[in-house]
Amino acid sequence: MGIAALPLADFEAALLGTDRVAAGRILEAVCALEQPLVAVEGLVAPVLERIGAGWERGEVALAQVYMSGLICEELVEEVLPASKHRRINSPRVALAVLDDYHMLGKRLVHSVLRAAGYEVLDCGRVEPEELIERVIAEQVDVVMLSVLMLPAALRVREVVLALPQHVRVAVGGAPFRLDPELYREVGADAMGRTASDALSILRSFAELAA
Amino acid sequence: MTSAERVTAAISHQEPDRVPLFMTTTMHGARELDLPLKDYFTSSKNVIEGQVRLKEHYGGDFYYAVLYAAIEAEAFGQDVRWCDNGPATAGAPGIRNIEEIRSLEAPDPRTTPCLQRVLEVIAGLAERAAGETPVVGLVVSPFSLPIMQLGFERYLRLTYEHRDLFWQLMAINEAFCVAWAEAQIAAGASAIAYYDPASSPTVTAPAVFRETGLLIAKRTLSRIPAATAIHLASGRCLPILDELISTGTNMVSASAEEDLAETKARCAGRVTVVGDLNGLAMRRWTAEDAEAAVKSAIAAAGRGGGFILADNHGEIPWQVPDSVLEAVRDAVDRWGRYPLSWVDDEGD
After folding, report:
1. Is the dihedral of CA A95, A100, A103, A109 positive or negative?
2. What is the overall mean pLDDT for chain A?
């Protein structure tokens, strides 16, 4: 099946309507013709990116982004079970929420990355010191940080300054979206406006490293 | 005109002497008194004095009797985490298992210490205002409070997957919200901000909003005996604007991510628009940036009244420097005087 023939619009409509059954049938049909990882990369990841872009344009709600990611994550777990198919584990990616209990952004990124076939280290809600220790101990290459409040966004600088130089840092959350210069101010390498931007950020990091 | 007269004219869709300014400064009161945020917010006397000084310093037209949004979660028994350069935030969600909703009890605003502190602030500000300055109270909407009560993710799953428990929680929160608003009005609040970010299309799909947040807002707002403002906390409003207006609210917040002129055109003569300066961007504004932003907002929405200039989130960040707030004040004074003939002149 060529990329052009993939049922992107139908899959997107099923996800936005939170119709897990319909989305599952579509992915199953694609997996019957393609390798599961190819199906995930060709269907699931692009549709999640389209949904993220729809949120950015104000056409899709955060709740739909969340439910779409959740459904895709579950579906991908079924077609790419850990024991049978290798997930993408390079670069090694860690996710974390700094400072407060607003966990949704991290959860959205987790869903997008898992649904796109990535292995992900979820550090949960952490203080900067704890995160730095884990990143070094687990030999993480890319850290993705989600924040909701401005004070937490400003603490990203503490993390950036303490990490080994080769570790890339991407950030996301309302303070960065509403102040597009803030991510540079805190020393991050990239800023995602939507959860699905995590995929393009990883691609751009890979291109820079190549 | 007094601030009260100015605001009354504006929300009656008439042009007052100048555009009313709602400076949503909560934390800056601590700076006026040179106090740490926790010391400031745990004393009603400090907050009263802080708000009075803020009005003198920045010339806003309101007293903002808001301490921090997480105070309602605190009233339900949740921990609050203090921060030395930002608002206090809710700690770990109070409802750890959704089954706990079945036995959840709402606090009584008249006997809950943290809420009593707010009521003391309102009463103190109302006394200082002597009818000349509106005192604004705040309730978190029944539909948005669960973001703190449950955490955002579990709340979304509750909304989609457990509608029976969702409605049970809404019934508890609605009763609390009305009682909390009534207590604030009895203490002297002139208007209530109904803080409802979850209803914004930024968060909830309009179709889901119509069968949840909209019904809740209609029921709740109809029971609040004062002017109300639906505040979506920087979230978008245009896709559901007609529905928001149908709730009977008097004011609607505008988002910096939408076109203010379009928002005003659709609201004109129906509800007052409150907005839409970008509080997060303010942190790095120069005085010239502040003046340009104020001028642009007034040009887009000022004519004909029905407009209150404010930030778009409902709370200006602690990191915004005094010089920017002073520049906003001065720009409103310079460009906000009615009639706004300069808008027509520049449009020609």
Report:
1. negative
2. 89
Cα distance between residue A152 and residue B86, in whole Å: 9
User: Chain B: nearest CA to A30, how far in angstroms?
Assistant: 27
pLDDT per position as a tens digit, B217-247 = 999 999 999 999 999 999 999 999 999 999 9
Total domains, chain B:
1
Residue B92: is its pLDDT beyond 50? yes
pLDDT at B212 over 80: yes
Beta-strand runs (E) in B57-131: 63-64, 80-81, 89-90
C-alpha closest to that of A198 among A123, A157, A142: A142
Structure ipTM over 0.90, yes or no:
no
Instruction: Flag if B319 and A181 touch (Cβ within 8 Å).
Output: no
Quote the CA–CA distance of A85 and A82 in Å, as a whole number. 6
Angle between the B113-129 and B163-187 helix axes, to the nearest 10 degrees?
40
**Domains of chain A, start order:** 3-79 (1.10.1240.10), 88-209 (3.40.50.280)
**Are the CB atoms for B297 and B275 separated by under 8 Å?**
yes
Output the pLDDT for position A84. Answer: 55
- CATH code of B341's domain: 3.20.20.210
Starting at the edge strand found earlier in the chain, the sheet holding A142-146 runs: A118-126, A88-98, A142-146, A168-172, A190-192
Structure tokens at B328: 């906003």
The residues pairing with B227 across neighbouring beta strands, listed in sequence order, are B191
User: CB under 8 Å to B303, separation ≥6 — which residues?
Assistant: B15, B340, B343
Residue B205 reports pLDDT greater than 60: yes
CB–CB contact B85 A151 (8 Å): yes
Q: Which two tokens stand for residue B135?
A: 């005192």
Closest CA of chain A from B35, distance in Å:
18
- DSSP sequence for B206-259: HHHHHHTHHHHHHHHHTT--SEEEEE-TT---GGGHHHHHHTT-SEEE--TTS-
Sort out which chain A residues have CB atoms less than 8 A from B205's CB and list them: 16, 60-61, 63-64
Please write the tens of the pLDDT for every residue from B129-173. 999 999 999 999 999 999 999 999 899 999 999 999 999 999 999
Q: For A180-203, how does the pLDDT look when each residue is reduced to its tens digit (9 = 90+)? A: 999 999 999 999 998 889 999 999
